[in-house]
Design a protein that fits this description.
It contains eleven helices and twelve strands. By secondary structure, it is α/β, with parallel strands linked by helices.
């Protein structure tokens, strides 16, 4: 197995860039998975592990699991602890990191295959995007995002999704208007999550047979023109102690209740 011990190694620098730059991930067609759980999930899903980086300590401590990953990877690198520290964002790194082929997004025409979709509009926090992706996978939704959302395949979003992003049908649109037009064209009844006067309380809301739920950004929610253009509006009743829930919490409550 090849060994890399220098933090200044060019391949180490490339992986750091791959983790930090969404455009580079898309160009390379790769994302970076950290930890045995995510790497193992990639194998379980039949995804191609292009390159596995593993530390000496991880190889010794998790020998059986590590050897299984090494055998299933196209290439494997034994890295020093110093390199491991440079490549990981975790406080207690597990010493395993994989470069995996990015899943392909849905084509517009494929949206019509689904009965439920969760649409995130300008959600900036990768933890919120990842948590919403995990909920979408759990409750049987396709996930739709605007291009200015945090990248679904950033390390933080992947960790928050617990690998769900790797198996989730998803689509990305340049902006809210393009997203809304595509959803409506695919035959979805569009539901805006919004605290407007005409919003129907979630507890009284009867979900249509086929719908797309639109959830706005953490700060401003959905734009007014998008709210108005949706078929209906739905609100989660909350106490006066808080103004609203954050994006991932709202997504979890709405997806579960509407999808029952």
């Amino acid at each position: 197995m090849e060994q890399v011990t220098s933090r200044a190694n060019e391949r180490v620098k490339q992986i750091v860039s791959l983790k930090n730059e969404p455009a580079l991930r898309r160009e390379a067609g790769l994302c970076v998975l950290e930890g045995f759980k995510l790497c193992g999930e990639a194998l379980r899903l039949g995804l191609s592990i292009e390159e596995l980086w593993i530390s000496e300590a991880a190889l010794e401590k998790n020998k059986k699991e590590a050897e299984g990953l090494i055998a299933s990877s196209k290439s494997a690198v034994l890295m020093s602890e110093g390199v491991c520290e440079k490549l990981t964002e975790q406080k207690s790194p597990q010493g395993a990191l994989a470069l995996v082929s990015l899943p392909a997004p849905l084509e517009n025409a494929e949206l019509g295959k689904f009965k439920k979709a969760a649409a995130l509009c300008s959600v900036q926090d990768p933890a919120n995007v990842g948590a919403a992706a995990r909920c979408a996978a759990a409750f049987g939704y396709a996930l739709v995002l605007t291009a200015d959302c945090a990248d679904l395949f950033s390390p933080k979003a992947l960790r928050a999704s617990m690998g769900a992003a790797l198996r989730l049908p998803f689509a990305v649109f340049p902006g809210e208007r393009e997203m809304l037009a595509a959803l409506q064209s695919a035959g979805f009844e569009t539901l805006a999550a919004a605290m407007t006067e005409d919003a129907e309380p979630l507890g009284d809301f009867e979900a249509p047979e086929r719908f797309a739920l639109l959830i706005g950004s953490e700060g401003r929610g959905l734009p007014e023109d998008i709210i108005s253009a949706c078929s209906r509006r739905v609100a989660i009743p909350v106490s006066a102690a808080v103004e609203s829930l954050n994006a991932s919490a709202a997504a979890a409550v709405l997806m579960w209740e509407l999808g029952k």
